[in-house]
Amino acid sequence: MPAPARPRALSRHTATARACALVLGVLSAATSVTACSGSSSPAPASAAERSAPVSPEAAPAVTAVPTPDLPAGTITLAFGGDVHFTERTASRLAATPADPALGPIARTVASADFAMVNLETAITTRGAAEPKLYHFRTPPSALTALRDSGVDAVSMANNHAVDYGPAGLADTLDAVHHAPIPVLGIGANEAEAYKPYVKEIRGVKLAVLAASQVMDLTNDKFRAGPKKPGIASALDAAKLVAAVKRAKARADVVVVYLHWGTEGQSCPGAEQKSIAAKLAAAGATVVVGTHAHVMLGSGMLGSSYVNYGLGNLLWYGTSPYPHSNDSGVATVTVSGGRVVGQGFVPAEVDGRGVPMPLQGVGAKAVLDRLAALRPCASLTPAPH
Prior knowledge:
Belongs to the CapA family. By secondary structure, this protein is an alpha/beta fold. The protein has one domain (75-377): Purple Acid Phosphatase, chain A, domain 2. The protein has helices at residues 15-25, 47-51, 106-111, 141-147, 165-177, 190-193, 217-221, 237-250, 270-282, 360-372, 374-377; strands spanning 74-83, 114-119, 122-123, 137-138, 153-155, 183-184, 186-187, 197-201, 204-212, 230-231, 253-259, 286-290, 298-301, 304-307, 312-314, 326-335, 338-349, 355-357. The strands form four sheets. Strands 1, 2, 5, 6, 15, 16, 17 and 18 form an eight-stranded mixed beta sheet that branches. It has a six-stranded mixed beta sheet with strand order 8-9-11-12-14-13, covered by helices on one side. 54% of the residues are buried.
């Protein structure tokens, strides 16, 4: 699935941006994330300003100031959660450089060498709705809007990728095959659905795969087979593990983006812990995922970074779970094929469905909640 070169609407991959990602790895709960804005020496903010989200009017365009590069062999990764372009977020398709689809947090997304989110929708205007409670679809321009927010790839291995049946799936695959960025975890057959996206970044070969562990109609009815279109499934653990081992044989860093967990539950279930351990043993450097609509714990499982739940990112409505509007972008720094730093830019999904970066008291509350979730995830703290 080749991806055309990204337009330079966003000034990305500069060392200020990369240094920002490294700074986020040592971000304390009391540190203001405005240090990563790329501007020089801002005046101290009042207590009210530190605790308030950034307003859309005050949000700068996604830019960065060129400075010396990171050394060869070191790359930064950024991961966001579930994204929709429907209902209150449909208007984000008409994004501008000054107000990208993901809002001001696009600055963090664009600053990474590689950034990824989950697109929780079919890409179609046709088809009959499947017999399920919720249905989501969007036009192909959603992929362009995400590209222009700094996203490098999306996962569509999720329980809403085929909400509009075979006709919708055919449209989705057509959009995937003509996408401006790689779309992972879905394909015309299982070879395509499990195929990793591989890219070399400053001498580091990165491989990225996606799959769904959610037991639902999509994983049952539209799971990709040898000659059958659909999504990559993590319910067939052996098949996914084999794909990770093949990716590891040709790449220095392997990322697996999963759809997994139970909605509303902020601690991972046994099935999540089981597949995470298998993927780590198979050579995955990073394992991240979504689906619960709340954030889960993150940290290290041996030498692998695991984030069990990234929560909602660009979200069409308010989920009926405590703290479901807590949001943000996880950052990971890898050097020499090993995770050497991690961080998190906290945000809050606002009334438009946009993740607005938090500062001060608001940021501390989200970061404290995330830290409190690590014990039930059975993970150790990641290096800073």
